[in-house]
Write a structure and sequence with these properties.
This protein is of the alpha+beta class. The protein contains five helices and eight strands, in the order ββααββββββααα. An eight-stranded antiparallel beta sheet has the order 1-2-8-7-6-5-4-3. The model has no long low-confidence stretch (mean pLDDT 96).
Length: 160
């Protein structure tokens, strides 16, 4: 399993996930740069993603929804902040309504995804920062740790 560590820090308002992939940095980058590949790993198992808009460039936007086992849809968006291909990208991550307008009842976070070469592949660090303890606690209560592990662990099979 690629995910080697998940930690949350209520004092610093962060959730950090570390993973190790048996593929080069450029291959892992492609997963995020290609919306069809991203769809295969963005949602946890049983909640596949459909990417509607995809612009992985500063100022760009990514919109998507995940479909649950009963057909229910969960909408979200990224507002891309910075891109350093193929090493890192950052974005604001938010929940959305079905028209992709922000759902302000749920927290927005800032995410930084960093990829570095290792002897046997790529080390990925996904750090998410929240504006408040309540925001972090909300997503923890929603199962973000388990969902993220399930989603990220699908990447190895995709890049094999």
């Amino acid at each position: 399993m690629p995910v080697s560590d998940i930690t949350h820090d209520l004092e610093n308002l962060t959730l950090t996930i570390t993973a190790q992939f048996a593929a080069p940095v450029e291959r892992i980058w492609e997963v995020y740069a290609d919306p069809r590949q991203l769809e295969k790993v963005w949602g946890p198992v049983g909640y596949p993603a459909t990417v509607v808009d995809h612009s992985l460039a500063p100022g760009g936007r990514v919109t998507y929804y995940m479909t649950g086992p009963e057909g229910e849809r969960f909408y979200g968006y990224w507002t891309v902040l910075e891109v350093d291909e193929p090493r890192s990208f950052s974005y604001e991550d938010g929940f959305a309504h079905d028209d992709f307008s922000p759902n302000t009842d749920l927290p927005v976070s800032t995410c930084v995804s960093t990829f570095s070469a290792q002897d046997d592949g790529t080390r990925a660090v996904y750090m998410t920062t929240f504006a408040s303890r309540e925001g972090l606690q909300t997503v923890l209560d929603m199962g973000v740790e388990e969902g993220s592990r399930s989603a990220i662990d699908q990447i190895d099979a995709l890049v094999a």
